Amino acid sequence: MNALISPIIKKYKSFILILLLLIVQTYFTLTLPEYTADIVNIGVANADINYIYNIGIKMIIITVLATISAILASFFSIRFSSGYARDLRKMIIPKILKFSNPELNGISKSSLITRCTTDVSQIQTFIKELLTVIIFAPILGVGGIMKSLKLGTSLFWIIVLIFVVIIILMIPLFKKAMPYLGKFQEITDRIHGNTREVLMGMPVIKTFAMQDYEDAKFDKVNSNYHKTRINAYRIILLSTPLLSLHLSLMTVGIIFFGSFQIEAGNLLIGDLLAFIQYATQIVTAFIMVSTVFTIMPDVIVSIRRVNEIFQTEVRIVDGEIETISTDKPIIEFRNVDFKYPDSESNILTNISFKLEPGKTIAIIGGIGSGKSTILNLIPRLQDPTSGEILLDGENIKNYKLAPLRETISLTPQKAHLFKGTIKSNMKIIDKNANDDEINEALKRANVNFINGLDDEVMPEGANFSSSQKQRLSIARSILKKCNFYLFDECFSELDKNTEKIIKNNLKDLDDASILIVSKRISTIKDADEIIVLDNGKIIDSGTHDKLIESCDIYREIVNSQVNLLGDGI
Asked: How far is CA 128 from the centre of its chain?
């Protein structure tokens, strides 16, 4: 919760300024009824036009000052709340960037999007209402009570009666609306998640003619949101005409009972008019506060959801070692096991091998055998359940994350490109890279389909084919000067000739260690060592020729791909 409060504390000067403006606005607002009473009691009663003129001028000046105060208070309130939302998002994004795979599995991506947008906006709205309504209304209400009591009339019981009636009628309405309130964010999560699935899976949906199914699926979630919103606000909005009715009845009651006091000579007409204005301000202040409380359930849920991001414990944290001692380090897996939280069985069991300078290691195995998990363990996107991963004989958990990851370049399965240009995408990996270095990396990855570094890249690389995106992704990875290059199924869309060219160019990576994960024999057969995985265990390792002789599973994979693709694997 401290994370949510700290942006407010930093802006305490703005908060004090807004509070002073609200007090000034309230003072001027509460002064006007007094002048109204003086105009009627003195100016009209004595037919003194000059007095009425002078008081009228004062009222105009006070009204202008009150309006200016209100505008300034509103301006600074909006600026304060917008700045708060900006600062809050600036705190959320760095926190999310620290999340590793376990944290991202705990809070879905669609939910994170909702929390960074809808929930923060909800809190921003509440902060604005807090400054312009929740603080202003009590000041106005208390000031109105003091001013009305100062008039010395006995009509205050009417205001109290109206308050009691309003509270009695409003409580059942809010009780009926409460079950619906506070659910909108969860439903919004589902809408975002469903929309994301549709957009990401568009080719599959169209290929299998699933448009009607997905349309019905989305319509169910969308209708649920619509129904919940309508049911909640149908009840809440009913309170508006009821409050207006009570306000009108209060005015009629004050005039009715006040007329008897005027007739008896106990109350002046001007004081009655002033009392009506004060009573209206008091009840209006109450209505303003009650209206704000209708959004409270949503705000409380939003605060809880945003605070959950800050409260989420980041499991993968920095060690103490800041530098890697040697220029050509070795990574060693030593009896590594891994399983996901709440999973009963291991994904990896007793994994042991070494990544040595100048050598290429390849990992092959069936779907779900744990190949990609091994790659994720090296830059500590996940940590082993047991066993050790050593870098120069030191457990990688003892290194700070930045220097550890600076020695590693990971090319993931999905080639992700960012909106911008070829150059901006390449510089993500090395902002100091010059054009010559970028062009050299592009040449090594056989990127021969662009006109220049300023070519546009659309979001997700939509203007490139799958093969082209993979080559750009490989080029970006090899632009980085590091000790370990990890390639995770990133040759899958390439034809054999392009794959061969790129693999030959990878041999010039300055004695770096290369780890390739692939299901294709053509990708890995030239590796110095091939590791065969089955159900998360290493069942054999060696060169291509050795494994054909010694490993039945590897031989089956080779034969299946020969039969499928023909000679030349």
From this structure: 20
Element (H, E) at 352: strand 348-355
What are the helix (H) ranges across 348-495?
Answer: 371-377, 401-406, 422-426, 435-444, 466-479
Cα–Cα distance for residue pair 523/354, rounded to 1 Å = 20
Residues in the chain: 569
Q: Rounded distance, CA 345 to CA 342, Å?
A: 9
Which amino acid is residue 263, in one-letter code?
E
Q: Is residue 460 part of a domain?
A: no
- Alpha-carbon distance of 332 to 324, in angstroms, equals 15
Q: Are 408 and 331 in contact (CB under 8 A)?
A: no
Q: What angle do CA 289, 158, 291 make, to 5 degrees?
A: 15
Identify which of 563, 557, 514, 527 has the alpha carbon closest to the alpha carbon of residue 539.
557
Angstrom distance (rounded) from CA 454 to CA 420: 9
- In the chain (569 residues long), the average pLDDT of successive 10-residue segments reads 78 88 90 88 85 91 92 92 91 87 78 86 88 84 85 82 81 72 70 74 71 81 80 72 81 88 83 88 80 75 87 86 84 92 85 91 86 91 92 91 90 88 91 90 91 89 90 92 90 87 83 89 90 91 90 87 57
**Residue 324 backbone dihedrals phi, psi, to 5 degrees:** -95, 130
Give the whole-angstrom CA distance, residue 218 versus residue 211.
10
Sign of the Cα torsion 335, 336, 341, 345 reads negative
CA distance 32 to 144: 11
CA–CA separation, 426 vs 443, rounded Å? 13
Domain that holds residue 13: 2-311
User: Which residues touch 95 (CB under 8 Å, ≥6 apart)?
Assistant: 309, 310, 312, 314
Domain check: are 284 and 346 in the same one?
no
Q: Is 264 exposed, middle or buried (0-12, 13-18, 19+ CB in 10 A)?
A: exposed
pTM above 0.85, yes or no: no
Residue 362: CA count within 13 A, CB half-sphere:
24
State the total domains in the chain: 2
Nearest to 255 by CA among 358, 153, 185, 127: 153
Residues 9 and 158 in one domain: yes
Residues 6+ positions from 541 with CB-CB distance below 8 Å? 353, 529, 530, 531, 532, 547
| Whether residue 134 is found in the same domain as residue 174 | yes
Residue 350 backbone dihedrals phi, psi, to 5 degrees: 55, 50
Phi, psi angle pair for 517, to nearest 5°: -110, 130
